[in-house]
Amino acid sequence: SQTIHQWPATLVQPVGSPLSLECTVEGTSNPNLYWYRQAAGRGLQLLFYSVGIGQISSEVPQNLSASRPQDRQFILSSKKLLLSDSGFYLCAWSRSGWGTEAFFGQGTRLTVV
Amino acid sequence: ILNVEQSPQSLHVQEGDSTNFTCSFPSSNFYALHWYRWETAKSPEALFVMTLNGDEKKKGRISATLNTKEGYSYLYIKGSQPEDSATYLCASVNQAGTALIFGKGTTLSVSS
User: Fold this and answer.
1) Closest alpha carbon within chain A to B43
2) How far is A32 from chain B (nearest CA, A)?
3) What is the DSSP-derived secondary structure letter of residue A15?
């Protein structure tokens, strides 16, 4: 069966510090991978998606970047965090095509102080 | 960017009440419509994935309908229970057909 792992679960970082959140998927190959963020009082916002190794698309301009160094690994990074980067980050995967659902990780609660 | 709207934003009902939520999305270049349930401290979990106009799906007391021509979907909960309390998210696929775009969700609270 397929599983998705996301870590860490919670993170408190000072403004200006770097960020690295990691997500890995097991039990499937060539998944579509996604990073979403839920800021306080807002819905799930798509940040990045990837349909293959090294292929990253960004939905919104921001202080973050994403990388996919391996087929089932997706990393969200920042060189210098801003207060506005605080939020709940969710990694997700889906099979190619949209007839089936997306599967989400447990999420990371990031607080930038 | 594809815009998905959900209403109401929040809803409070009594145990046993039936309720419904609305999701609206652009009807052009439609790919699929997803409904997810997101409980506090858990990951969103899929309820339904619908692709055809007129689709109706049911899972226990929860059902959903889809109208792709006019760009809306309804989620119905019959006889709400406290364990139905959660945020219900709908999502449609972006124009490139590569990613799910979510609405802000409807937060349901069911009192016993």
Assistant:
1) A106
2) 8
3) T
